[in-house]
Design brief:
alpha+beta, Aminopeptidase, about 35% helix, globular
Length: about 200
Amino acid sequence: MGLFPAAFETERLRYERLDESMGAFELYEYTSTDEFAEVGRFISAGQHHTPKETADYLAESAERWDEGSRANWAMYPAGDEDRAGEFAGVASLIPLWDRRTARFGVWLREPFWGRGYSGERADALVALTFDRLDLELVGTGCVAGNENSKRAIEKYVDRWGGTYEGLLRNWLTLDGEPRDLHRWSISHEEYAAADAIVELTVDE
């Protein structure tokens, strides 16, 4: 059994290891779009201009998976969901082992916005962080101005009894410009005490 599950399912989504689920040309169809460029304004990723960039991204994803420093999963709606089986985006879990902490990342294609998928994904990653990886804290955040992400994070952090830690000024750089970051955290103790349930089926 590896550190990260190669595939798992939640109530409405299936997650598969990204570099094994998609090839460079297939993923490039999405990472080369103007839609992805728009999403990239709020995450540490930029639009890919050649398939080589996507191939390099997948190679790095595989390397970091194997060394245990990042897990990237492709997300697909499952069951009776609208557009079931279609690529919906990427979910990421980044363990900071020396800090006993995990950070999350996500990018979701616009046709799948407004369905609550981000929160469903977050609940699954919270459970993996504490129940599988035995870490002590989830630290999550979003760039100031990304109101959709802010609302989604507030919902799942509240569900798990977490804490808003504040606005970290000039905390990261995007497109060469310093940006402020909203930051929240969830401790293992808060997770254990929360009255919430995660429906998670893991495939090894």
